[in-house]
Structures are given as C-alpha cells and as structure tokens.
Write a structure and sequence with these properties.
Keywords (chain B): Membrane, Transmembrane, Transmembrane helix
Domain FecR N-terminal (chain B): 13-54
Strand content of chain A: under 5%
Mean pLDDT of chain A: 73
Largest sheet of chain B: 13 strands, mixed
GO molecular function (chain B): sigma factor antagonist activity
Order of helices and strands of chain B: HHHHEEEEEEEEEEEEEHEHEHEHEE
Number of helices of chain B: 8
CATH class of the largest domain in chain B: Mainly Beta
Domain FecR protein (chain B): 113-204
Oligomer: heterodimer
Low-confidence stretches of chain B: 75-109
Number of domains of chain B: 4
Distance between the termini of chain B: 65 Å
Structural class of chain B: alpha+beta
Distance between the termini of chain A: 27 Å
Helix content of chain B: 25-40%
Transmembrane segments (chain B): 89-112
Number of strands of chain A: 0
Chain lengths: 200, 328
C-alpha cells in the first residue's frame, strides 16, 4: 500500500519532516495567489510518497524545496489566468533557501524534549489517551477500559493527538491549534451519543 | 475533487486513518476504503505519509519513561481553570514552554552562514526566530542556554525575533550590540560605510562600546553609526514607506524613490557581476523611481532607457547607458 512503507516513513521522518517549518516559512513569503501552503506541502509530500526510491536523494532539504517549487509551477501553469506577481515570484524560487541550516541538528537532538512539550500542551483527555498509548504502551482497547470511554473515542483522541503533533512540529514547536479546546468538547460529546457532523 | 476538499480536511482524515491503523489490523472493508481514499486526490498520500511519520515519531514517547508527567511540561490544566480567559491560558503556555526549553538546555551548533553574490537566504533558528541574509553576507550563530547571539560579520541581514523571557537575543555588529525580545529589524554593515540599523517592528536596545547607556529604538526608526567614535547619534524617525523600500531586498527587489540614476545603478553591483555604466553626467543625475528585480541589472537598464530615451549597449559584464543624442 502506498505511503505506508515503514522505511519510507522513517526516511521521511528523519530527512523531510524537520524541514517543514523552514519550508512553511519560505512558502509564506512566496506563496502564489490562490494556493494554500498546506496544499503545496501535502502535494510535495505525495511526490515523495510516490517515488520508486529515495536512495538517490543526497540533499533531502534541497530536494524538498525543489519539489515544492515544481508543485507551484505546475499550479501556476494550470491556472487559466496567471497573476503577474505569481510569475514574478517563481523566478525567485531559484534562490531557494535550500541549504542546510542550524535548526536541523537541534531538532534531531531534541526531538524527545519537543515531543514531551507537545504532549504537555495537548488538551487533557487527548493528552491522557496519548500518554497511555505512546508512553505507557497500552493498546487502544486497554485505554478504553482505563478511561471508561468507547474505543471509537480513544481512536478519535489518538487522531487528534497526531494532528496536534503535526501542528506543533510542522510550525517549529510553537503552534497551539486554535481549536484545541473546542475539539476536546467535541470529542467528549461523542460518548454522550451525539455525534458531530462532519469536521470542516 | 481537488477544489472542494480542503487540506485541513485531508489532514484530519489522514490522522483518522493512522489512528485506526494504530488500533489494530484493518478489516477488509476498512482496508479497501483506505485504498480508495488514497487513490483520490494526490494530497491525501502526502498527508498520510506525514501522519504516519508523526505517529512513528511519537513512538519514541516510550523513552520518556513511566515517570513522565506531561503537566511538568505544560500549563495548569485549562479545564480546571475555566475562569481563566483563553488569552491568559495561551500566554501561560508560552511561558511554560520557554521554561522547559531552558531545562532541556537546547543549543544550536555555532557556525558561520554566508551567502554568495546575488543570493538571499532565510535561516530559521532553533527557537523559531529567523535571519534573512542579503547578498554577500555572513553571520555567525551562537545559541547557548542563556542567550541567543548572532554576529553580523559583514553584509546585511534582517532579524525576526520571537520572544523568550529567559534568553535575550543579541546581535553584534562591529562595536555595537543590539538586543531585543520581540522585534523585526535590519542591520547593514557594508565596506566603507557606517553601520546602519533600521527597526521595522517592536523595539531594539542599542549599546556601543564607549557609550554609557543603551538607546532604545522603536518601530520606524533608523540609526547610522559613525565609524570614528563610540558615541550614539540621535536616531531618525522614518516613514513606513521608506522602511518597506529599504527592506525590498528580502523579496529580491530594489526599490527607488527619486534616487539619482548613478546611485541606483550602483546598488545593482551588490547583487550581480554585471556593472551599469552611465556615460552622460546629466543622465546620471536623473531621478529614478520604481521597484526592480535585484538580480536583473539589464532589465533595470532597459526600463530606465525607455523612460529617459537612452541607449543601452550590452557588453560582456557591462551595460552602458548613454543619451541617444550623443550618437549623432
């Protein structure tokens, strides 16, 4: 199954994910009209997920920036009306900040510390479920018994926890998701039998 | 399809799938549903890879050990403090995070970062502060547990500093020292010219060897430090427009508003090997206004020639501008 290969995931975790904050930063300065940063990032990661092999990639950071650039070029070309300043922006992608930078090493070394902080900032129920699963190693079923909530709810908390980590690590360990409090309330209503409509 | 599904929604679905996989083996129906989902919009596969990686990363949480108390890393439980406003809670969280950062003793390796001719580079530092380096610039980053220090060796850089109540951010340039907690400012140190500081946002304290007390510079102020002695001159208040123009290099541009053509042309020498020569003194003193691409001296010359009815002649590393009337 695509995108689920553990080796690819591990490679991605080590070589690509640490550069996401820098990529976001870079994109935020050069984002062409009509393209969301998250769209560009997801599409870039899809390219990395779909590659036959990543062995040939010597400089993952530079490669990531290059892929992101090509994603934008593709979109700009596809758009019927090309805004003038989008075209101008593209010429500047050649000067990409793609070289290695000090933050990279620091992230590797301190990943555990950052994980601890991210977990520490999670909404309480999600935090409890996440700690039981990832720190104490209980299964989702065991957690459901321990917390006296349904297994589906545990699964929701794990999913929220992962998204929380995504926000946290993707934005350089600063972002607290705006809706974390509401999400907590939303999940707690799940057990009361009132399921919220789609999340949009 | 691609235009109705938001990236946020995709991110949620991807996390849901990874959480489902974390629960145990998928049923046949779920497995097929996941395959179908992944076959849709390509962004889904990217989001799925990312969510898997985050999940894998969180597996290292076991290393935190049984004594791990998340509360030690965060604010008091927000639900137990319903009386607190959201804003208070968030700022409290910031403080706690900063405190634990100290406890963990994070520090980035020291080293110089240098840009080449025509290169503009954004460097994100470990705390989220950024330094943008203009063409031919060198900075040295030294982060310790007590302070965040960046030395501007030469060139021009723009600093965007995020606050950290426990670690001051210091920028050293020549015999001056700037400190700030939350600010955006540019510092320039070019050959043969005095050091120039331009504050865009927040405030910056400027100290200098030989001057007793630091000077606080607010937003939209500029100060030029004479090379001779350590005295601090009076800072100038400048307009927001001027700040924007002066910082246009961050977008790879040069902005002019009424500068002499020869002075404007000289600016391009910082970004490329191509030199612009102006043959006529009266052409050289014409005022130039506009936003130009820093890496394109030829484009600039053509644009200027069109306005002033001049002639452009391009040689190897030179662009020569002259009055048309000179030819006859």
């Amino acid at each position: 199954m695509r995108g689920i290969d553990r080796e690819r995931t591990r490679w991605f975790l080590r070589n690509i994910l640490p550069h996401e904050p820098a990529l976001r930063n870079w994109l935020s300065r050069r984002q062409p009209v009509g393209l969301e940063i998250d769209d560009i990032i997801q599409e870039s990661y899809a390219v990395l997920a779909d590659m036959e092999s990543v062995e040939a990639i010597r400089h993952p950071r530079a490669y990531l920036f290059q892929v992101a650039r090509s994603v934008i070029v593709r979109h700009v070309k596809r758009a019927r009306v090309v805004p003038i300043h989008a075209v101008e922006d593209i010429s500047q992608f050649d000067r990409a900040d793609a070289a290695s930078s000090p933050e990279q090493v620091a992230i590797d070394r301190d990943q555990l510390g950052r994980l601890a902080k991210a977990i520490g900032a999670m909404p309480p129920k999600t935090q409890q479920a996440f700690v039981l699963r990832r720190v104490e190693g209980l299964s989702q079923r065991e957690i459901s018994t321990r917390m006296a909530i349904s297994e589906n709810t545990v699964e929701k908390h794990i999913s929220r926890g992962l998204r929380f980590l995504g926000d946290w690590f993707g934005h350089g360990g600063k972002a607290v998701p705006e809706t974390s409090m509401e999400q907590e309330l939303e999940i707690s209503t799940l057990d009361g039998g009132r399921r919220n409509q789609s999340t949009h | 399809m691609a235009d109705v599904e938001t990236s946020r929604h995709i991110e949620e679905k991807a996390a849901d799938w990874v959480a489902r996989l974390d629960r145990g083996p998928l049923s046949e129906a779920d497995s097929a549903a996941l395959e179908r989902w992944l076959d849709g919009d390509p962004r889904r596969r990217g989001a799925f890879l990312r969510a898997n990686a985050l999940s894998m990363m969180s597996e290292s949480g076991q290393a935190l050990g049984p004594d791990f108390t998340p509360q030690a890393f965060a604010t008091p439980n927000p639900l137990r403090h319903r009386g607190m406003t959201r804003r208070k809670w968030l700022s409290g969280a910031g403080g706690a995070v900063a405190a634990s950062l100290i406890a963990l003793g994070v520090s980035a390796p020291a080293g110089a970062i240098t840009t080449g001719l025509g290169e503009v580079r954004l460097v994100t530092l470990e705390d989220g502060s950024t330094v943008m380096l203009n063409s031919q610039t060198s900075v040295k980053v030294g982060y310790t547990r007590n302070e965040r220090r960046v030395h501007l060796l030469y060139g021009e850089a723009y600093f965007t500093i995020v606050s950290d109540p426990h670690r001051a951010f210091l920028v050293e340039v020549a015999d001056a020292r700037l400190s700030a907690s939350r600010a955006g400012f540019g510092v320039r140190k070019l050959d043969g010219l005095p050091v120039d500081v331009l504050v865009n946002q927040g405030s910056v304290a400027l100290g200098r060897v030989g001057s007793p007390k630091p000077l606080v510079l607010g937003a939209n102020t500029r100060i030029t430090l004479p090379q001779a002695d350590g005295a601090l001159p009076v800072p100038q208040l400048v307009t927001g427009d001027l700040v924007t123009r002066e910082l246009a290099w961050r977008e790879g541009k040069i902005a002019f508003e009424g500068e002499r053509l020869d002075q404007a042309a000289a600016q391009f020498a910082r970004y490329s090997r191509t030199r612009i020569e102006i043959r006529d003194p009266d052409l050289a003193s014409e005022p130039v206004t506009g936003l130009f691409s820093a890496g394109d001296p030829v484009g600039f010359s053509r644009a200027v020639a069109a306005i002033f009815d001049a002639r452009v002649e391009q040689q190897a590393d030179r662009v020569i501008l002259s009055r048309r009337t000179n030819r006859t």
